[in-house]
Specification:
heterodimer; A: mainly alpha; Rna Polymerase Sigma Factor, Chain: A; Arc Repressor Mutant, subunit A; 8 helices; 82% helix; globular; B: alpha+beta; six-stranded antiparallel β-sheet; three-stranded antiparallel β-sheet; 40% helix; 18% strand
């Protein structure tokens, strides 16, 4: 049995940020994080608690996504609406919204495994923890991360260029 | 040496390259301009991807709509949670425990659908020698609706159980279907009363936790706790805010850890033979000691 209070204090913030980045919804992220800690209560042994928590959170998200892919579709729709809707408001807010929408699109464009590895690494998980959470060999995590980072940046830059082209067309 | 592959470079920059490989990689980089350039690129990708990901943090809640009502996701939480709910810091326990009698009366008429009991009473392995007398069976049966009816009918232990005290002032079970639920709203906590308590809980004056479950609907984790207070079944339904959700998880964990040490949430069973040679098994998500206590309640100290 684990000291869930300590686990919560140590990992909640990290887990919620990871899930928010992954799911695009903070409430949903908090909900999944909380359920993850509930599962931790019932877990007798954890060899690596951080990897365990991320693995369980990943599984909860996957189960949920399997059950209701409609929600994800709706989410995508909302992001697109947001991108289209934000035309006139104050400059910085618009830029932020565009950034977020492009970042989301770029992240969603990654392969699932690459995306999860990258998001977990951003929360400070080491290679062995990422390997354990994703069922990879530790030796392949570097390659996975390298590919994820490069593709994320490339996709994001491509989206930026498209955006600039659209703006250019609108101006002319 | 061959040029370093991209994975090795990222692993090196992440400080994750094993010692032996690291020394070789560093030696190579020192004299290979191509790999030094690749390292610079990789640094750029690492920094840029971190920056891109931070753009995802300013995301509001409630973006994703609640799932359809017909398919709520249900988590049933372990026995440890059920037990721990009695000492919750969230104030749930105190809502029930400190309500004056006047309010308890209100709770009694606030009726919704009956809830099940987590206590499972297993039938014996030996067929019953005689049919179970109906009067003793009735209250227990009404109280434990989710137990299979045939199972109850065939369970000889019911025949031998001391006739349970009928719960006082209990609303008839049919009310559940006809009357709209009346609820006390206490901040974000809704309290409703339900049906008749089971025989084994009927005597208890202090609120007792019967079960605790989570229903996740969209962004809401709805917590349902079933108590019995003086034989009346009361359910507590909570819709926490995100902030409360976090706080609650902390307080829950304190309470749960304390309780979890006392009783394992796994299912246990006890089996014994009575004076007629009949074998009985009592099974449920309780500790052995709790099962023994239940057995004593149902059959007396010496069955």
């Amino acid at each position: 049995m684990h000291d869930v209070d300590r686990l919560f204090r140590a990992y909640n913030e990290m887990l919620v940020r990871y899930l928010t980045r992954r799911l695009g919804d903070r409430d949903w992220a908090e909900e999944v994080a909380q359920e993850t800690f509930v599962r931790a209560l019932r877990q007798e042994t954890m060899t690596n608690e951080r990897a365990w928590l991320f693995t369980v959170a990943n599984n909860l998200v996957r189960d949920e996504a399997r059950k209701d892919s409609r929600r994800r579709k709706h989410l995508t729709l909302l992001f697109e609406e947001e991108r289209d809707r934000v035309v006139e408001p104050e400059e910085t807010a618009m830029e932020r919204a565009q950034d977020a929408a492009m970042a989301r699109a770029a992240v969603d464009g990654l392969a699932e495994r690459d995306r999860l590895a990258l998001l977990m690494r951003e929360e400070g998980l080491d290679y062995s923890e990422i390997a354990s959470a994703l069922g990879l060999s530790a030796g392949s995590v570097g390659t996975t991360l390298a590919r994820a980072r490069r593709r994320l940046v490339e996709q994001y830059e491509r989206l930026q260029q498209e955006q600039r082209r659209r703006e250019g067309n609108a101006a002319s | 040496m061959q040029h370093l592959d991209e994975g090795t470079i990222h692993a090196w920059l992440d400080g994750e390259l094993p010692d032996a490989e690291r020394a070789a990689a560093e030696a190579h980089m020192a004299q290979c301009p191509e790999c030094a350039a690749a390292v610079a690129d990789a640094r750029g990708f690492i920094a840029a991807s971190s920056r891109i990901l931070t753009a995802l943090d300013a995301v509001p809640g409630g973006v994703v709509p609640a799932p359809a009502k017909e398919s709520p996701r249900r988590f049933v939480v372990s026995r440890a949670w059920m037990a721990a709910a009695a000492v919750l810091v969230l104030g749930i326990g105190t809502v029930i425990a400190t309500r004056p009698a006047r309010d308890v009366a209100v709770l009694r008429v606030a009726e919704t659908r009956p809830e099940s009991t987590p206590i499972e009473v297993a039938p014996t392995t030996v067929p019953p020698a005689e049919p179970a007398p109906a009067p003793a069976e009735k209250p227990l049966r009404r109280a434990t609706k989710r137990i299979d009816k045939d199972q109850l009918r065939n369970a000889p232990m019911v025949a031998q159980a001391p006739a349970p005290k009928p719960a006082p002032a209990a609303a008839p079970a049919t009310m559940a279907d006809s009357a709209p639920p009346r609820a006390l709203r206490l901040g974000q906590v809704v309290v409703t009363g339900v049906g008749v308590a089971s025989a084994m809980e009927a005597d208890s004056a202090a609120p007792q936790v019967v079960s605790r479950s989570f229903t996740v609907e969209g962004a809401d984790t709805i917590v349902t706790t079933i108590y019995t207070v003086k034989g009346v079944r009361v359910s507590l339904i909570e819709h926490p805010s995100p902030l409360e959700r976090q706080r609650a998880a902390r307080s829950f964990s304190d309470a749960v850890m304390a309780k979890a040490r006392e009783s394992a949430p796994t299912e246990n069973s006890i089996t014994w033979s009575d004076s007629t040679g009949r074998t009985r098994t009592l099974r449920g998500a309780m500790s052995q000691a709790e099962l023994e206590r239940l057995k004593a309640q149902l059959f007396g100290a010496t069955p």
